[in-house]
Amino acid sequence: MVPHRFHNQYRHNEIATSSQGKLIIMMYEGALKFVTLAIEGIDTKDLSKKGTYINKTHDIINELSCALDMKKGGDVAHKLESLYQFILHQLTLANIKSDRKALESIVNVLTPLMEAWEELLAKSNNGSANNADKNLTTLPHKKIASKC
Q1: CA 68 to CA 7: how far, in whole Å?
Q2: Residue 108 · residue 93 · CB < 8 Å
Q3: pLDDT digits over 67-122, tens only?
Q4: What distances in angstroms separate CA 52 from CA 11, 24, 59, one per listed residue?
């Protein structure tokens, strides 16, 4: 195997064995990484790069949106859905108009969301969270599968 294939296998194994909470954090990390690369594409006037990374971000946000359980999630799920729809709108705007500010607004929304999930997962791993939070580390990753 070449080194690139080792890395791909490692990432595959990491994803396959991660908890639901960790998968959500990984998705936020990926979305933030791709938004940053799309901003670079706008700055360098590389339309292909911009489009590629906006589409990758769109796919991640769409997956997060589809994975929401509106019945169990209640008000939090509805608020997250509103934020995800805002992000999808901003991605469309950024793609059409090469609007850097639209992408920066996405970073401003995703960063605190990711930090909140990291804090929740850390509390859950430290045993200081309640039973609902503990489920984040024990639920199998299949629960986040897309319903779209």
Answers
A1: 30
A2: no
A3: 999 999 999 999 999 999 999 999 999 999 999 999 999 999 999 999 999 999 99
A4: 21, 22, 11
Enclosing H/E stretch for 89:
helix 70-97
Whether the CB-CB separation of 38 and 57 falls below 8 Å is answered with yes
What's the gap between Cα 21 and its chain centre?
11
Measured between alpha carbons, how far is 137 from 130 in angstroms, rounded to an integer? 12
What is the maximum alpha-carbon separation in the chain?
Answer: 49
Residue ranges covered by each domain of the chain: 18-144
Question: Taking the CA atoms of the chain, what radius of gyration do you get in angstroms?
Answer: 16
Q: Sign of the C-alpha dihedral, residues 72, 73, 74, 77?
A: negative
Give the residue carrying structure tokens 């590389």: 46
CATH 1.20.120.340 fits 18-144, yes or no: yes
